[in-house]
C-alpha cells in the first residue's frame, strides 16, 4: 500500500507539493427483510488519490487502477488541475501539506473480522430470524463487516499507513399490528455484534402493549436513547464544531468560544481512542488524531480543523487532525470520533422517573438542518416511540416530528445515563468510512415537536 | 455469464467505467478541482430465493471469475429463502447513447475555471456575504450489461450541470440563496451546452442581493395559507412524497430497516386517491436530457413511460423484476438502477414527472391568486419513514397580496400529509414553465448509493397548507 502511494507520488510532475493516498476497501454487507435475506454485497476495491499543490491551489484526481499507466494519468490530471487553478485564480490559500508527526498506534483492527466470512454473517441472520419467529415479529436489518487500509505518502516527507476494521448490525422488528422497534450495534470486531440480542431488544419495543397514544404538537419532556442523542451530536458536528464553518462565520459557535452554550453537565470531545469508539490514528492529510475538548462543563472549548480551515481561521489555529480529504473537503472538517461523557443515571428507566408526562425516543429519522447557525434541525421519531406517564414508559406513541435547536436541547438537558455506547447509522456511501458517536441516554426538560 | 449459468438460477454482470469532474470555487479560490476515474464489474447471482453480489476493479476474465465465485459464496452462506420468480423479460440486446452536443470533458479546464471564478467574484463584495460558491460537474459513464437470460446491452451517458450559491451572515443567523437550484444546482443528461445556457453570470448579483435581503426580511408567518411552489421545490416534493412512496420494494417491506416503508399498499392500485384531478404523474425513463433516462435499466428492462397517478388516482408502481412478480404484475416497470460498478441495483426513481397544467406562466398564476405565499428553492427537507408526513423549508418566500408578489420573507417552511397536500393542488403552470430539475444525492440502499434522478415540473398552487413551522 505505501509502495503504491510512493509510486503514485513519483508520477507527479514538478510542483509545490503533493500527496498520494491509497485506500482499499474489502467489505461484506448482508441485508434482510421480513425475516429473510434480501441483498448481499461484497466489495473489493482500491482508490488512489493524488493531490497536487501549486501556488496555494489544490488539484486532485482519483483512480481505482493500480498499474503504472493509471497512476501516471491520475498524477497528470491532478497536476493539470492545480496548474489551471493557479493560472486562473492567482495565489491560493492552502499553506502546504502537513509535516510528518508521530502517529500513535491503536487497537482498531481485528484479524478475524478482516476475514469477512459470509458464513458468520449468515449465522447472525439466522439468530435474528430465530428470535423474531419466537416473538411473533418480522426482522429487518443489516449485518456488515469491513477492512479498510489507508496509506499516505507526501512530498513533505509524510509516510503513514493504517488498517482498521469495523462491524455494524441493526435489527428492526415489526409486530403484526405494524408497530416497530429498533436496536443496533457498531464495533471494531464483528464478534461483538449479537444480532439475536439486538432482535430481542427490537422485538420488545415492537411488542409493547396498548393502543398507540397521540400527542399534539408542542413542547414535552423527553428521554432519548443513545441512538437519538448520537444523531443530534452528529448534526452538532457539522453546524457547530466544523472548523471551516467556524472560519467562515457560519458556525453556531461563531463568537461563542469560552462561553456557556449548554447545561454544565454536558462534556463533549473528539476522542479517537476513547473506549468503545472506532479508533483512528490520523486524518486524510496524515495529521495524528488526538483528544480534543469541544464543550467542557457546558462551555464551548474548541472546534475541529484541517489544514485549510486552520489557515483560514488564522490566529495561530492549526490542524487538529480532522481532514476528510487532502487539501480540504467540501463538507468541511467536522469531528469523526465524537464522545459525550455520561452522567449518573443507572439507565433510561431511571431517566424517566421524574417525568410526569413525556416522550421516550429510540431514534430519529431523516433529520436535516433547517437553519445551521442556530443548530435548528428537524426529524421524525421512529421505531419505538413511547409515552412516559408518572415516571414510567406506559404505552406506544405515534411518531412525532422534532424541530428544535441541538444546542437548545443540550442547554435543557437534565440528566444522562452513566453508560455510554457507540452509536452509528451504518451508512456507507462511497468508499467505506465508518464513524460513530459514543454517548449516553439523555433526559431533556423540554423538546419542541411540530407535528 | 456462460460460467454463471450452470451455477446459479440467474446471474447478471455489469461492467462499468466512469469519469467524473467536479470544479467548485469557494470565496474566490478553487474549493475543488477534482477528476475521478473508476472501472470495475459487479456480478449478481440468485440461488433459490437468495441473492449474492460481488464487485471488483479487475475486469479481466480472472477478475470476473473471482467475483462470480465470491457472489456465489455470499448467496450460499445466507439462510434459505422461498423462491419468488422474476417477472419475465425478453432478452434485451443493443446499444444506446445519450445526446451531448458539446463534450464537457473536451472543454478546457481554463475556460471552466475562469467562468466559475468570474461568477464567484460577481457574488462577492458586501461584507455580509460570508461564503459564495460556483460549481460545475460532468460525468461520463459506459456500461455493459449481460445476463444468463441472454441480455447484452451497452450504453453511454454524459451528464453536465452546475450552479451557484451565496450565504449571508447576520449576528444570529445565516441566509442562503442559490441558482438555478440548491444542492449543487441543476444537471442534465446532456453536454456542456446546457451548462453554458445556465447564464450564471446574469444570476450571480441577484443571488447575492437576495441572500443579504433575507437577513432583514420579516419571517414567514405561521398558519394556513394558499401556497405556490416553484418548479425546483415542487420537484423535491414530488420526489419525496410520490416517487419514494411508490417504490415497490419499499411498499413490500424490503427497505423497512433503512429507507422505510410506504403508506401505500399494493391493494391501493387503481383505488387510492393520491391527489386532486389535476395530478398526473408518470415514471418516464425516455424523458429527453433527464438523469433518469437510459436505454435499459440495470436488469436489462427497456426504457419506458408509464403512469403512476392519473387524474389523482394511483395507477402504477416503480418496480423490479422481483418486486413486480411478487404482487403478480406481468412485467417490471424498469426501475432497477445501481450507482457505479460496486453497488447492486435497487428499485429507483427514473424521471418521475408531474404533467403541466393550463395556468399559464408563474406570473399568471400569482396574478390569479388573491392571497398566499410563494416559496422558492429548497433549503431543508424531511419526511417520515412511511412517506406520509413531511416538512420542507425553502430559501426564500414572497407574500402574495391581491395577485401581486409582495415582500420577501425569510425562514419559510411548510408541512403536510401526502394525500391531503396533493389533494389541495388546484393549479399547475403550463408547458412553457415545465422544466427538468435534477436531484444528485438521492440516498437509498445498503451499502448506500447516491442516485442521480430528474423530475419534470412546472410551478403549482396548493390550497390550505400549514406554513411557518420552524
Describe the structure.
The complex is a heterodimer of chains A (451) and B (470). Chain A is of the alpha+beta class. Chain A contains 10 helices and 19 strands. Chain A is globular, with a radius of gyration of 23 Å. In chain A, a hairpin with a 5-residue loop joins strand 5 and strand 6. In chain A, helix 4 (118-135) runs parallel beside helix 5. Chain A has a 6-stranded antiparallel sheet. Chain A has a 6-stranded mixed sheet with strand order 16-15-12-7-19-18. Chain A has 2 domains: 2-206, PmbA/TldD superfamily (PmbA/TldD fold, 2-Layer Sandwich), CATH 3.30.2290.10; 218-449, no CATH class. The mean pLDDT of chain A is 96. Chain B is an alpha+beta fold. Chain B has 2 domains: 2-216, 2-Layer Sandwich (PmbA/TldD fold), CATH 3.30.2290; 223-467, no CATH class. Chain B has helices spanning 2-5, 61-77, 109-123, 192-197, 200-216, 231-243, 248-251, 321-326, 362-367, 418-423, and strands at residues 10-26, 29-47, 50-56, 93-97, 129-147, 152-169, 174-179, 186-188, 223-229, 281-284, 305-310, 313-314, 336-337, 346-347, 352-354, 371-383, 389-401, 404-409, 413-417, 425-428, 435-444, 449-457, 460-467. In chain B, strands 1, 2, 3, 4, 5, 6, 7 and 8 form an 8-stranded mixed sheet that branches. In chain B, a hairpin with an 8-residue loop joins strand 13 and strand 14. The longest helix of chain B is centred in the first third of the chain and has 17 residues, at 61-77. Chain B is globular, with a radius of gyration of 23 Å. The model of chain B has no long low-confidence stretch (mean pLDDT 96). At the A-B interface, strand 1, strand 2, strand 3, helix 2 and helix 4 of A face strand 2, strand 3, helix 2, helix 3 and strand 16 of B.
Amino acid at each position: 500500500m505505501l509502495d503504491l502511494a510512493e509510486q503514485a507520488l513519483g508520477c507527479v510532475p514538478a510542483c509545490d507539493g503533493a500527496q498520494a493516498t491509497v485506500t482499499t476497501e474489502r467489505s461484506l454487507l448482508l441485508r434482510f427483510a421480513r425475516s429473510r435475506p434480501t441483498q448481499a454485497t461484497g466489495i473489493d476495491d482500491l482508490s488512489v488519490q493524488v493531490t497536487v499543490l501549486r501556488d496555494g491551489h489544490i488539484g486532485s484526481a482519483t483512480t481505482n487502477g493500480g498499474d503504472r499507466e493509471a497512476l501516471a494519468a491520475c498524477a497528470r490530471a491532478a497536476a493539470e488541475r492545480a496548474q489551471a487553478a493557479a493560472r486562473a485564480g492567482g495565489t491560493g490559500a492552502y499553506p502546504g501539506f502537513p509535516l510528518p508527526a508521530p502517529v500513535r498506534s491503536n487497537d482498531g483492527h481485528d484479524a478475524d473480522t478482516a476475514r469477512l466470512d459470509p458464513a458468520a454473517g449468515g449465522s447472525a441472520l439466522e439468530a435474528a430470524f430465530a428470535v423474531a419467529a419466537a416473538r411473533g415479529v418480522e426482522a429487518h436489518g443489516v449485518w456488515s463487516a469491513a477492512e479498510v487500509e489507508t496509506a499516505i505518502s507526501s512530498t513533505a516527507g509524510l509516510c503513514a499507513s493504517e488498517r482498521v476494521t469495523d462491524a455494524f448490525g441493526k435489527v428492526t422488528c415489526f409486530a403484526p399490528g405494524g408497530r416497530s422497534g429498533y436496536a443496533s450495534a457498531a464495533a471494531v470486531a464483528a464478534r461483538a455484534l449479537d444480532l439475536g440480542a439486538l432482535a430481542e431488544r427490537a422485538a420488545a419495543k415492537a411488542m409493547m402493549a396498548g393502543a398507540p397514544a397521540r400527542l399534539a404538537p408542542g413542547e414535552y419532556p423527553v428521554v432519548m436513547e443513545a441512538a437519538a442523542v448520537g444523531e443530534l451530536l452528529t448534526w452538532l458536528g457539522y453546524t457547530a464544531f466544523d472548523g471551516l464553518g467556524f472560519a467562515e462565520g457560519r458556525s453556531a459557535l461563531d463568537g461563542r468560544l469560552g462561553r456557556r452554550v449548554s447545561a454544565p453537565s454536558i462534556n463533549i470531545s473528539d476522542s479517537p481512542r476513547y473506549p468503545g469508539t472506532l479508533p483512528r490514528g490520523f486524518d486524510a492529510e496524515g495529521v495524528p488524531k488526538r483528544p480534543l475538548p469541544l464543550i467542557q462543563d457546558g462551555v464551548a472549548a474548541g472546534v475541529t480543523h484541517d489544514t485549510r480551515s486552520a489557515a483560514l481561521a488564522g490566529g495561530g489555529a492549526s490542524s487538529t487532525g480532522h481532514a476528510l480529504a487532502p487539501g480540504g473537503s467540501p463538507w468541511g472538517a467536522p469531528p469523526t470520533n465524537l464522545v459525550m461523557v455520561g452522567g449518573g443515571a443507572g439507565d433510561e428507566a431511571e431517566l424517566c422517573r421524574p417525568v410526569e408526562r413525556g416522550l421516550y425516543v429510540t431514534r430519529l429519522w431523516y433529520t436535516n438542518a433547517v437553519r445551521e447557525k442556530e443548530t435548528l434541525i428537524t426529524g421524525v421519531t421512529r421505531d419505538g416511540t413511547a409515552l412516559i406517564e408518572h415516571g414510567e414508559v406506559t404505552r406506544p406513541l405515534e411518531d412525532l416530528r422534532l424541530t428544535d435547536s441541538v444546542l437548545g436541547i443540550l442547554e435543557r438537558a437534565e440528566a444522562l445515563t452513566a453508560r455510554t455506547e457507540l452509536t452509528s447509522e451504518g451508512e456507507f456511501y462511497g468508499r467505506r468510512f465508518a464513524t460513530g458517536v459514543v454517548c449516553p441516554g439523555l433526559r431533556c426538560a423540554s423538546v419542541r415537536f411540530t407535528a | 455469464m456462460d460460467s454463471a449459468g450452470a451455477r446459479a438460477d440467474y446471474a447478471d454482470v455489469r461492467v462499468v467505467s466512469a469519469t467524473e469532474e467536479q470544479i467548485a470555487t469557494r470565496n474566490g479560490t478553487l474549493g475543488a478541482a477534482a477528476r475521478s476515474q473508476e472501472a470495475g464489474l459487479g456480478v449478481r447471482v440468485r440461488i433459490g430465493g437468495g441473492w449474492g453480489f460481488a464487485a471488483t476493479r479487475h475486469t479481466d476474465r480472472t477478475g470476473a471469475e473471482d467475483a462470480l465465485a465470491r457472489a456465489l459464496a455470499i448467496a450460499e452462506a445466507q439462510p434459505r429463502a422461498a423462491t419468488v420468480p422474476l417477472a419475465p423479460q425478453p432478452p434485451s440486446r443493443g446499444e444506446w447513447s445519450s445526446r451531448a452536443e458539446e463534450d464537457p470533458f473536451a472543454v478546457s479546464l481554463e475556460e471552466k475555471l475562469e467562468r466559475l471564478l468570474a461568477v464567484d467574484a460577481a457574488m462577492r463584495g458586501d461584507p455580509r456575504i460570508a461564503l459564495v460558491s460556483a460549481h460545475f460537474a460532468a460525468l461520463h459513464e459506459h456500461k455493459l450489461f449481460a445476463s444468463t437470460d441472454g441480455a447484452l446491452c451497452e450504453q453511454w451517458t454524459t451528464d453536465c450541470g452546475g450552479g451557484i450559491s451565496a450565504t449571508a451572515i447576520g449576528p444570529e443567523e445565516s441566509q442562503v440563496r442559490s441558482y438555478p437550484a440548491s444542492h449543487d444546482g441543476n444537471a442534465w443528461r446532456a453536454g456542456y451546452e446546457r451548462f453554458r445556457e445556465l447564464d450564471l453570470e446574469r444570476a450571480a448579483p441577484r443571488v447575492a442581493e437576495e441572500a443579504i435581503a433575507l437577513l432583514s426580511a420579516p419571517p414567514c408567518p405561521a398558519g394556513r395559507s394558499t401556497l405556490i411552489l416553484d418548479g425546483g421545490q415542487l420537484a423535491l416534493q414530488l420526489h419525496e412524497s410520490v416517487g419514494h412512496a411508490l417504490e415497490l420494494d419499499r411498499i413490500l417491506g424490503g427497505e423497512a430497516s433503512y429507507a422505510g416503508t410506504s403508506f401505500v399498499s399494493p391493494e391501493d392500485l387503481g383505488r387510492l386517491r393520491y391527489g386532486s384531478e389535476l395530478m398526473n404523474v408518470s415514471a418516464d425513463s425516455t424523458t429527453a436530457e433527464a438523469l433518469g433516462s437510459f436505454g435499459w435499466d440495470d436488469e436489462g428492462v427497456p426504457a419506458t413511460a408509464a403512469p403512476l397517478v392519473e387524474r389523482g388516482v394511483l395507477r402504477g408502481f416503480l418496480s423490479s423484476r422481483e418486486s413486480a412478480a411478487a404482487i403478480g404484475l406481468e412485467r417490471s416497470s424498469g426501475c432497477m438502477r445501481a450507482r457505479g460498478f460496486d453497488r447492486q441495483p435497487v428499485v429507483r426513481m427514473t424521471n418521475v414527472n408531474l404533467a403541466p397544467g393550463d395556468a399559464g406562466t408563474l406570473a399568471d398564476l400569482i396574478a390569479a391568486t388573491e392571497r398566499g405565499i410563494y416559496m422558492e428553492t429548497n433549503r431543508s427537507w424531511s419526511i417520515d419513514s412511511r412517506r406520509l408526513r413531511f416538512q420542507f423549508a425553502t430559501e426564500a418566500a414572497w407574500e402574495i397580496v391581491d395577485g401581486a408578489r409582495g415582500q420577501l420573507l425569510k425562514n419559510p417552511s411548510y408541512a403536510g400529509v401526502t394525500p391531503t397536500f396533493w389533494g389541495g393542488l388546484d393549479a399547475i403552470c403550463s408547458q412553457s414553465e415545465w422544466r427538468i430539475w435534477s436531484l444528485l444525492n438521492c440516498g437509498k440502499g445498503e451499502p448506500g448509493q447516491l442516485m442521480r434522478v430528474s423530475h419534470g415540473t412546472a410551478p403549482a398552487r396548493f390550497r390550505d397548507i400549514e406554513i411557518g413551522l420552524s
